[in-house]
User: Which sequence fits this backbone?
């Protein structure tokens, strides 16, 4: 495994981290979830990402059990707050009330006294930004949270938060968690330049396009049994990439990967890690063999001719519009 700093912070994270969205507490049984976490630890992954909302809070519980007994100081545990975790009007968003209640629930489920990174899962248009940032800052002072990050915020939202933090003396955001892959590059024009300037690192999600960039989904054919595209919870999430034009171009990447002696998943993960503003690529896995395949992307260098070949193959199916970074207009 290779390691990078989380933005300009002192925190070091594994270049490849393990996330449990759609898998733990949902698509995969607890046994398989624990095997994936064990494989991740065995392969040198130290950074784990989850969220209170995953599997209706069950994913945090599974991760807490899977990491039980592991030396806490050897792990970086990341979670998030924003999406609904209960039926009430205050069981969501980034108000002082919900953030405070949410961190207590997350710490209990994860069986830990603190999380290394606490992330605003989306921007809350119904709460004053000062209220959110002050609450996060209080959690840092209380030792419940070590660093603060955001997820799927626009460059403008991040810039506004930094300005307030600097004026008020609050802890600054150190990370941004956007979707980023060969297929989805919407952060490149605005979020990344601002982040480079401000010392914010990207912890990117779905670097393998939810499995699509492995090339296992063939155009015009049924998805393989047991894959995310056949999962009750996952199929709607992966649908945006399950188009024949996308799947056809992805098949054309196979010679690029094989010329380099890489699997398709490794090529996809290595691709996001070429961006030096990326601190870590969060990979998901439904079985331990996938984790063992994926970690081999750590430290892989892709030269300019390879990057150019990938761009030529994918052409206009790549999404680059920064306006695709959106949070709900009102609380969900
Ligand atoms: N902040 C946010 O809003 C947000 C949103 C989404 C995700 N995330 C974070 O990012 C993490 C990763 O997201 P993701 O799961 O979509 O990432 P991903 O790594 O792009 O996709 C993971 C899925 O692809 C398939 N796969 C992975 N490696 C494979 C391999 N070597 N061979 C074949 N198939 C393979 C597996 O699904 P199957 O085996 O089922 O096909 C696996 O569950 C999440 O767990 C979460 O922590 C954050």
Assistant:
């Amino acid at each position: 495994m290779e390691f990078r700093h989380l933005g300009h912070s002192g925190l070091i994270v594994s270049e490849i981290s393990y996330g449990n969205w759609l898998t733990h507490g949902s698509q995969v049984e607890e046994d398989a979830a624990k095997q994936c976490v064990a494989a991740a630890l065995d392969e040198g992954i130290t950074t784990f990402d989850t969220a209170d909302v995953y599997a209706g809070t069950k994913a945090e519980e599974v991760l807490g059990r899977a990491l039980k007994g592991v030396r806490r100081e050897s792990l970086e545990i990341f979670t998030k707050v924003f999406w609904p975790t209960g039926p009430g009007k205050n069981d969501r968003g980034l108000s002082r009330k919900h953030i405070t209640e949410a961190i207590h629930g997350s710490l209990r489920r994860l069986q830990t006294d603190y999380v290394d990174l606490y992330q605003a899962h989306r921007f809350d248009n119904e709460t004053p930004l000062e209220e959110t940032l002050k609450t996060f800052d209080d959690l840092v002072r209380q030792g419940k949270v070590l660093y603060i990050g955001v997820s799927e915020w626009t460059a403008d939202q991040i810039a506004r938060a930094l300005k307030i933090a600097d004026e008020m003396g609050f802890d600054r955001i150190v990370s941004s968690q956007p979707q980023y892959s060969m297929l989805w590059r919407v952060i490149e024009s605005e979020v990344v330049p601002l982040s480079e300037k401000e010392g914010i690192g990207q912890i990117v999600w779905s670097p393998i396009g939810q499995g699509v960039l492995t090339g296992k989904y063939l155009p015009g054919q049924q998805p393989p049994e047991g894959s995310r595209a056949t999962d009750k919870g996952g199929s709607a999430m992966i649908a945006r990439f399950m188009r024949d034009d996308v799947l056809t171009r992805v098949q054309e990447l196979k010679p690029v990967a094989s010329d380099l002696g890489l699997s398709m998943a490794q090529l996809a993960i290595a691709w996001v890690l070429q961006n030096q503003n990326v601190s870590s690529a969060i990979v998901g896995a439904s079985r331990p063999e996938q984790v063992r395949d994926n970690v081999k992307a750590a430290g892989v260098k892709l030269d300019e001719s390879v990057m150019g070949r990938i761009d030529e193959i994918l052409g206009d199916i790549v999404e680059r519009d920064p306006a695709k970074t959106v949070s709900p207009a009102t609380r969900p």
About this structure: The mean pLDDT is 97. The pocket of NAP is lined by residues 19-21, 23, 49, 121, 151-152, 177, 205-211, 214, 216, 227-228, 265, 282-286, 290, 293-294 (CB under 6 Å). Residues 96-110 form the longest helix (15 residues). The radius of gyration is 19 Å.
